[in-house]
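Why do we care about 3D structure at all? Because function follows from shape, and shape follows, mostly, from sequence. That is the central idea of this module. The next example makes it concrete: a single protein chain, its amino acid sequence, and then its structure expressed as tokens.
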Amino acid sequence: MKSNFNIYCKYLFVSGFAAVSVSCSNTKFLKEGQMLYTGGEVKVENDSLSKKEKNELKAALEENLVPKPNSKLLGLRPKLYFYNIAKEPKKDKGFNYWLKYKVGEKPVLLGDVDREFNRKIIENYSENKGYFNAKATYDTVSKNKKAQVIYTLRPGARYLVSNVKFQQDSTLINREIQNFANKTLLKSGKPFDLDVIKDERERIDNGLKERGFYYFSPDNVIVQADSTVSKNHKVELNVKLKEDTPDLATEQFSINNVIVFPNYTIQDVKRGKYSVPMNPDSLSKYAYDDIYVIDPQHKFKPKIFDRALYFKKGDLYNRSNHNLTLNRLISLGVFKFVKNEFIVSDSLKHQFDAYYLLTPRQIQSLRLEALGRTNSANYAGSELNLNWTHRNFFRGAEQFKAAVYGAFDFQMGGQENAQNLFRAGTNVQLSIPRIVAPFRFNSSSAFVPRTNITLGYEFQNRTQLYTLNNFNAAFGYVWKENARKEHELKVIDITLVSPANVTDEFYKQATTPAAQRVVAKQLIFGPTYSYTYTNTMLSKPTTIYYKGTLDLAGNVTGLVTGANVKKDKEKKIFGVPFSQYAKMEHDFRFYHKFTEKTSFASRFIGGIAYPYGNSEFIPFSKQFFAGGSNSIRAFRARTLGPGSFDPRTIEPGTLLDQAGDIKLELNAEYRANLYKFLNVAAFVDAGNVWLINDDKNRPGGKFSKEFLSEIAVGAGVGLRLDFSILILRLDLAMPLRVPYYEKGDRWAFDRINFGDSSWRKDNLILNIAIGYPF
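And the structure:
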């Protein structure tokens, strides 16, 4: 221990010396007369402001100062140091160019600072926030070739809003504006704030757009501030329409004709095939209910546009229906460009025609894919897919997809007796852009709901062990409330697994009933429902993802037939016992972005599957697993758990796949970008799986009140190569807490020995995968 302590002391001394060297050496690279700019500081001098108000004003003003000084890390400027020590490159590439201009950062000098410009920014910003008599000065403080600019602001008293008036007259548009007065953002007693005034103008414009004023603009509204009518630093606000507002902006428009061009292309326009606006006399032959569909070749059924369009003849224009219609047309998936034009057709009646110019995507496509793939069971391999897509199968924007595929997988870093996998199969899906059901389903979402019908078959061969034939069929719906919330309901989801060619070698390796259930005949059917919420598409520093799934198999059938396997009343359909269980799973993810190059990601998974009625056990394919490249990376795939069961008790040469009925898992990762495609990560994983019922072949596997002591913990570091088309991930992990060690001795810190080759072989797990784990 003493030698290790000495090494740590030397490391700290060297690190401290390097830090002092970096901090002191940057200024020596400056030329004569140059001074390094270390930043600007704003001091607010006003006794009438609270400490909180001063700090908020100070922070906002300093954020607006330009330029920003060189970035700092732990009080140092390492980027500036790398810029200074790197030689000037002769070309725009190479190590010196990368070190100086990619890693490094050019020095920000005092000469780069326009102090008078910043002073005006401080005064203008203060006035916009209600400090009408703000005055600012500046001073420069320099020492040891470093300079800081101190700005002193004397803002005076802040003006408050005394009264808000909406100018009234008898015009239509002013009467409409009066309707928004009760919910104004401008409040008496609140400070004058130009940003709030801008928001109020936008609010009025949005409201008018919902009431037919298509040509209105926020610039047509003016908010006059008068500080002469009140005393004690008060200001009166008068909201009114600008006198030079165009007449067109003051008129309320309604829809006359709705005209759709579903085969619109630029080439056809140039040839004179389409003309916008159209001659009204030529529209009659294209009429469908209240719309006109210009489709001479009848490529599309007109009713798909009747469902997608939220404007009908005679409707008052509103922005919500405008955007809703465009989004629904895009979500049909058959048009690559959607363009909309409103053209005045009757200026006296204030009506315009709505034109929808739609450019179809390629209706049919055939794609051949060759893929490299990995999964959480540490299998890697290649896959070949042939996909055919028809995006307008019955002329109603139905998408029909058919695929055939073949794949070969082999296990990396797993069990020594792991067998290779060969898979081949086919699947078809028909996706209809509406809800096909005996009841009426109305959706005001921007996304078209879909009915999905799927059929599939997969042949799976695990060499020298067994063959599985998997049949699947499903009927269900997918609909989105908005961009963040999605629902998927499979009214019926049927899976039939039929084994074949099960070898003696398999039974030699699968020595327990749990392992042998892999090749049991399975008939699984019932509804499944999932709900997904995500805002990860937003450019926010903090985002979340959640998916909850409910799987109910054989429930109604089990109730009707009175199935009860525990009372020897097992029921079969076509000679195969059907599965009966209830399964629920929750997947919650949290992401936080510190900077453009650093972020934190975490995930929690909780799930439970309960067998009853016709089933004593959960089907193997529906159970939970732990370990592997997308789970707890310090343990090999499917070797962790259940509970405190010790996998070392399993005889060599037997199958090690361990599954559970309950799962708890927590993962956390710190991610950073080093250079372009090169990313690194540090991570911690924790969790395990457990059984609902006792299993004499796996003692310690049942979930109990001792479950917290059976949580496995692992940690490690990772390297991610982001090549845009794929992300190659290498994660090196080691166990910190092993649940199958003796209770009270499960933390592995005392056992860590990087110098021992046998320890490294047993405990350092390298996971190779494609894509992020979550």
